[in-house]
Every structure is written in C-alpha cells, then in structure tokens.
C-alpha cells in the first residue's frame, strides 16, 4: 500500500517538477555540477594533473558543499544520455528530480520511523502531511540545496537515532550524517540534538555517537575535494562565510525589516506556511510528544525541532528568503502532525481512520490548489487568509525568483526585437538561463544596471532606450530605490489574489529612481531575543530531563 502511495507521489513529481520557474542559485548549481564532474573526467584523462586541477574545477560555488550538486548531476547526466543535450530545460527538470528523489526518500524514511515508534496511523498521517506542506513540496522540486538539506536532515536524524539505540550500524548512520553536512551547513542542529539525547536518554550510546561523528566527518571530507588543498583554512571558511550575510540580507516579517529573525518568526512560519489543518494536527502532535517525553523517540523529535527553531529564531544567524534556512523544521513538523492525527484517530473510532484522513486532505487542498503548485513558495495558509492576508500582515510574499517565468512570457509577447531586459542583483543567471533554454526570446538582452548591481555579468552604466526592468517584489532585499520604483505604475504585473508576485517596468521608470540612495533601516532583535530563543530550548531540555528522571 505504501509503495503505491510513493508511486503516486512520484507521478505527481514527474508531472509538476517543471511547473516552477527558474529560481535563485539554480543556474549556478547546475553549472557547478558540470564543473565538478568535469574534474573527474579530467583526472582520468590527465592523472598527473588531478591535484592541481582541483582549484580550477571545484572553485565555483565552493561556499556550499557538493553532495546535492553531485547527486543531481547524476540525474541530469541520465537525462542527457536518454535525450541528448539540446533541450536545457529538460535537463534542468532531470536535475530537479534529484531533489524530488531525496524528498521521496525522506517520506519513506519518516513513514518507517513513525510506524515503528508511534504506530501505523501516525505513520500514514506523517506521509500525507509531507506533500501537504507547500513550502516543503515546492523546494523538493527545485535544483538547489534547501529541499535536499531538509530531506537529508530528516534521514540523518533517523539514522543517528537508530544507531544510538543500537539497531543500525554506525557506518551507515555516520555516512548519512556526512552526506547531510555535505548538503548544507543548516543541518548542524542535529549534532547538538544527538549530544543532548545521549545525555538525557542513553548515556551508554555516547561511544556509538562518537563513531557516527567520526564516520560523518570522514565522508564529508572525502566527498569534497575543494577542502583537500587547504583543509583547515577552507573548512573554517565554510563554517563562517555566512556570518557576513547578517549585515546585508534581512528578514521581512510583520511589515518590518529585521537584521536577524525574532524568536517568534520560525514558530509563526510553522502555522502560516501550512494548511490550517496541518498546523492544528502539528500542535496536537507536539502536545502528545510532550506528554510522552519520557519516550526516547518523542524526545528525539522534540529536541531536533526545538534546536532548529531556536537557532533560526536566535537573531544570530542570517535567516533570509522565507523559511529556507530552517526548512528542516517542516519534515519534523510533519512528524508532529502525523502523531497528532494518530492521537485523534484513537479518539474518533466511530468516525473512521479513512474518513479522518480524507477530511484532512480535502480541507488542506483548496488553498494549495488556489495558490497553484507552480507557486508553492508563495503559499500561505488559511490561518492568515492565504496570500492576500499574508501581505496585509506584513509577510514576505515571494523571494526565490520562481515567478520570473510570468514576466518572461509577457516580454516574449510584447518586447521589441533586441530590447534590453534589466534584472535585480543576483538574478542575471536566472534571466540568462531562460534565454539559453529557449524560454526567453534569443534576441532579448538580459543585463544589470551599474548603479544597482555590477558583477561579472553583462551590465550597462546607463539605462537604454526602450528597455525593461523585471522587478521581483521580494521585500527582504528592498532598497529605497526599489521602494520608489514600487510606487510607480508597472507595464505588467502577475498577481495572485491582488498580490503582485512579479512586475515589469519601463526602463524610463527605473531611470527616474536611480538617484534614490540607501536602504530601509533594519530592526535589531537584540541580545534579549537570543536569550528568549535559547531559554525556550533550555526549558524544553529541562522538561525532558525531568521526564526521563521520572521514568527511571
């Protein structure tokens, strides 16, 4: 039965993985994968040059670990073998299926874990909840690190738990941990949760945990040749490079810019970014887990969820672009929802488990379908009134450039031959990828404007006549110039429920705003915010410690 369910999810993925527009970082990761695999080919052809060639082939996007780029590159290579290399859009969809495959593995792993620890009904509730969380499902269909990091976090957490209780071999669990760290640094709370779990529940597992850490470190370093050339310096760079982003990338929340998320932001996201029935089931499940806190499995889920949320809400790490930096919380939240549904099913026997699940899905789907699976990253739940209510409350309504696709289609229909299309900082590779894939007319010229962003890409120092500007209303990156432009009338706007998700302005409108300097002043959450976030985690740890003492 569960195999059939996974088959349905696979078909859904195959049908929808190409529906989302190209997003921030995807072009970079796609070309990085090509470069990394080229190194292996180069090393095979030139064995004497394999060491010195590392810097040349592994430099691109070296701030991010390589596992997903290698994993997804295998899927793209399979697409190239089957269909050739002419259709770049098709290869991109194969690349994205690498992310979706990890999502399916996470669903499978969560089902097996929850079935063993909390029962069959809770397992099915978890498996249903995973694809009903639009932000998780949306990132699962993108060729970038966030969805894979969330999937690998869950798989590594399951592996560590099984190894610590003695039912999995240490090399297997440690290998999963190494792959998780080789996906994205945001998985690091799982190590803290593991140390705390051993101290609270099973101290005799400390040696097995140390073995997992050692194997994980070995897998991490073995998988990333970029580190080999200068291990200490480059590892330190990997661990610290994101710290500088705290000064330039902000969280937009409740109508304000924040230099670091307030403690309640990730908690709010667990409610506002999921269907309200999922949020309610998650709350019920969290209460059930707290009630059963003496159970090692319940404590494991709670510790992981608490640490992920506490780090994100501390205000000390860069949290920008919606929930992507703490996306690992959502598979854990799906487990809570599954446990909550299992508890409800036990008290609604006359209602029937099948009827409960049917009602759960039916109530969750309308908002998802109204938003559209292609706009999963723009979804907000019924608790805030979907996207219109989210905008009114001051939430960021789009952030990954996936909505550029609508602007591209409008430009194809309306832009004169040879027109220049200006884009915001960081999105030139997105626009150029549309052109190379044949989705943006080949005669149109993507470019940056020098006063806004000068990088290694094409740019102009002055606005060209007859040009256009594609504007992503991503509030967290607004400058005063973009705010001034936002008040002008666009030539085109793609909207959902009256909320603009991408606009196209005339080049003349941009020219009139280039003299506007500065950016909104972000609100500093302050040191007290970190104390609140950390205090909440400490309170949970103390509660779990009390529960384990009572059990003994």
Sheet having the most strands: 6 strands, mixed
Radius of gyration: 24 Å
Shape call: globular
Low-confidence stretches: none
SS content category: mainly alpha
Q: How many H/I helical runs?
A: 24
Strand content: 5-15%
Cα-to-Cα separation, first versus last residue: 39 Å
Average pLDDT works out at 94
- Across the major sheet, the strand order is 5-4-3-6-8-7
Q: What number of domains?
A: 2
User: Fraction of residues in helices?
Assistant: 55-70%
State the gist of this model.
With 552 residues, the chain is mainly alpha-helical. It contains 24 helices and eight strands.
Structural notes for this entry:
- Residues 75-227 form the Glycosyltransferase RgtA/B/C/D-like domain.
- This is Glycosyltransferase RgtA/B/C/D-like domain-containing protein.
- It holds the Pfam family PMT_2.
- InterPro entries: RgtA/B/C-like.
- It is a single chain.
- With 552 residues, the protein is mainly α.
- The chain has 2 domains: 1-371, no CATH class; 403-514, no CATH class.
- It is 59% helix and 6% strand.
- The protein has helices at 2-16, 26-45, 54-58, 67-83, 88-118, 120-129, 134-139, 146-165, 170-181, 189-201, 206-223, 225-228, 231-240, 264-272, 276-291, 296-312, 329-347, 353-371, 386-393, 404-414, 428-436, 480-486, 507-511, 527-551; strands at residues 251-253, 256-258, 420-422, 445-449, 459-460, 468-471, 492-496, 499-506.
- The strands form 2 sheets. A 6-stranded mixed β-sheet has the order 5-4-3-6-8-7, with helices on both faces. It has a two-stranded antiparallel ribbon with strand order 1-2.
- Strand 7 (492-496) and strand 8 (499-506) form a beta hairpin.
- Helix 2 packs across helix 4 (67-83), helix 5 packs antiparallel against helix 6 (120-129) and helix 16 (296-312) packs across helix 17.
- The radius of gyration is 24 Å and the shape is globular.
- The chain starts with a helix and ends with a helix.
- The model has no long low-confidence stretch (mean pLDDT 94).
């Amino acid at each position: 039965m569960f195999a059939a369910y996974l088959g349905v999810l696979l078909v859904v993925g195959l049908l929808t993985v190409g529906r989302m527009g190209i997003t921030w970082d995807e072009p970079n990761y796609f070309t990085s994968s090509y470069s990394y695999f080229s190194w292996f080919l180069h090393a095979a052809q030139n064995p004497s040059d394999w060491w010195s060639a590392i810097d040349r082939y592994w430099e691109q996007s070296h701030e991010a670990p390589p596992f997903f780029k290698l994993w997804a590159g295998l899927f793209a290579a399979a697409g190239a073998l089957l269909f050739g290399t002419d259709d770049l859009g098709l290869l991109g969809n194969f690349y994205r299926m690498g992310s979706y495959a990890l999502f399916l593995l996470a669903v499978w792993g969560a089902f097996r874990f929850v079935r063993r620890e909390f029962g069959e009904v809770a397992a099915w509730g978890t498996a249903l909840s995973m694809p009903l969380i639009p932000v998780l499902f949306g990132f699962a269909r993108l060729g970038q690190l966030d969805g894979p990091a969330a999937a690998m976090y869950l798989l590594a957490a399951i592996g560590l738990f099984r190894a610590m209780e003695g039912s999995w071999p240490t090399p297997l669990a440690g290998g999963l941990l190494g792959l998780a760290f080789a996906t994205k640094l945001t998985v690091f709370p799982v190590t803290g949760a593991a140390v705390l779990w051993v101290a609270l529940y099973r101290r005799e597992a400390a040696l097995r945990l140390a073995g997992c850490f050692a194997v994980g470190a070995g897998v991490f370093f073995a998988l990333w040749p970029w580190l080999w050339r200068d291990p200490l310096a480059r590892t330190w760079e990997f661990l610290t490079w994101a710290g500088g982003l705290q000064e330039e990338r902000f969280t937009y929340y409740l109508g304000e810019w924040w230099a670091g998320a307030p403690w309640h932001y990730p908690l709010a996201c667990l409610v506002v970014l999921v269907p309200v029935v999922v949020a309610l089931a998650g709350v019920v499940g969290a209460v059930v887990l707290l009630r059963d806190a003496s159970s090692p499995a319940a404590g494991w889920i709670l510790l992981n969820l608490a640490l992920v949320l506490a780090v994100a809400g501390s205000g000390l790490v860069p949290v920008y672009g919606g929930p992507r930096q703490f996306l690992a919380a959502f598979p854990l939240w799906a487990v809570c929802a599954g446990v909550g549904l299992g508890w409800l099913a036990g008290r609604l026997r006359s209602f029937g488990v099948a009827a409960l699940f049917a009602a759960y899905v039916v109530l969750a789907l309308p908002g998802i379908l109204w938003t559209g699976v292609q706009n999963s990253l723009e979804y907000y739940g019924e608790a805030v009134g979907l996207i219109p209510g989210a905008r009114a409350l001051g939430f960021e309504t789009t952030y990954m450039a996936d909505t550029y696709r609508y602007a591209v289609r409008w430009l194809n229909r309306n832009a004169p031959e040879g027109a220049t299309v200006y884009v915001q900082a960081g999105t030139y590779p997105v626009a150029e990828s549309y052109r190379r894939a044949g989705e943006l007319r080949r005669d149109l010229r993507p470019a940056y404007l020098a006063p806004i962003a000068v990088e290694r890409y094409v740019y102009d120092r002055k606005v060209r006549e007859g040009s256009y500007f594609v504007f992503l209303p991503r509030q967290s990156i607004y400058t005063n110039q973009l705010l001034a432009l936002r008040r002008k009338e666009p030539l085109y706007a793609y909207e959902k429920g009256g909320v603009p998700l991408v606009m196209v302005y005339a080049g003349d409108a941009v020219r009139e705003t280039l003299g506007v300097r500065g950016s909104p002043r972000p609100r500093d959450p302050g040191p007290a915010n970190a104390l609140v976030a950390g205090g909440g985690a400490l309170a949970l740890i103390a509660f779990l410690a009390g529960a384990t003492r009572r059990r003994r």
